[in-house]
Design a protein that fits this description.
about 280 residues, single chain, alpha/beta, 10 strands, about 35% helix, two-stranded parallel ribbon, 8-stranded mixed β-sheet, globular
Length: about 280
């Protein structure tokens, strides 16, 4: 670790927030911990829900404020036993989901972006208080597209364009998909400019139920998540971050945002884990 050799007066700490849909609400635990420790990241990189959380935080919102934003539109209801999206979810998310007849996805995603714009208060990367990097995937040539300047919300919208769920985004002559397709945990984008990089992996674990086989949509989304997990696993083996965090989140599907409190309960332990790992590296 280069920062151990040169011991700078102020460490440049990078924060990478991975994709994972509803499980990405666990990122709030990390943001709150950094606030409590008085640590301001030098730069943030985010994919999908990580891009959403990264944009909110980089715009100046505290971890606690982001938690409050989540609770603004979160109305608890009994949790389902299986299935990623049902009619009750569709009714419940009508305010933020905009169905489309476009064959490339179920929802446009524009209502979510408008909701975020009410809280981010920034239209470009240059206006953010903390530098932010957002990733997306080019549908045409299968390459990673990295955004760090220009229009902010279109980049976030592209980064969260989960294949089959949200329609792709057209920008700069490219058709863009969710960044998790190519880089679900983009900590590598921070390693050259930061002394210490924290990577937060919110990939979850789903229990296999012999009595209830996953429905069609669950199977498709789970295949996408398995691909993401493989990409992260391979990168961790060859080029790990300084601090790797993966909260033990179980049985929370990509779109099951009604399980917010469950996510918070299951991810609470990473707050102490982060404190301990920072203490060990910075003493």
């Amino acid at each position: 670790m280069k920062w151990l050799r040169r011991k700078p007066k102020v460490l440049k700490i990078g924060l990478a927030l991975g994709g994972g849909g509803a499980r990405g609400l666990a990122h709030i635990q990390v943001l709150e911990t950094l606030d409590e420790l008085g640590i301001r990241p030098h730069a943030i990189a985010g994919t999908s829900i990580g891009a959403v959380m990264g944009a909110l935080y980089a715009s100046g919102l505290s971890g606690k404020k982001i938690r409050n934003v989540v609770h603004e539109w979160q109305t608890p209801r009994p949790e389902k036993t299986h299935g990623i999206l049902d009619r009750r979810d569709l009714r419940r998310w009508a305010a933020l989901l905009d169905p489309t007849f476009d064959r490339s996805g179920l929802f446009k995603g524009e209502k979510i972006i408008r909701f975020l714009s009410d809280h981010i208060k920034c239209t470009t990367f240059e206006e953010l208080q903390i530098p932010l990097v957002v990733t997306a995937a080019d549908y045409g040539d299968a390459s990673e597209v990295v955004f760090k300047s220009g229009d902010l919300l279109s980049a976030v919208r592209a980064s969260m364009a989960i294949p089959g769920v949200f329609t792709p985004v057209e920008r700069d002559g490219r058709l863009l998909l969710d960044g998790g397709v190519v880089n679900p945990l983009p900590y590598n984008l921070l390693q050259d400019e930061c002394d210490l990089v924290i990577a937060v992996d919110v990939g979850g674990v789903r229990q296999v139920d012999e009595k209830h086989r996953p429905p069609f949509f669950d199977t498709i989304i789970s295949g996408f998540e398995i691909m993401e997990a493989a990409l992260i696993r391979n990168r961790l083996q060859s080029n790990p971050p300084d601090i790797y965090l993966k909260p033990d989140i179980r049985n929370v599907g990509l779109l099951e945002f009604h399980k917010t409190e469950q996510v918070f309960r299951q991810s609470e332990a990473i707050k102490d884990e982060l404190r301990q790992k920072l203490r060990m590296l910075m003493k």
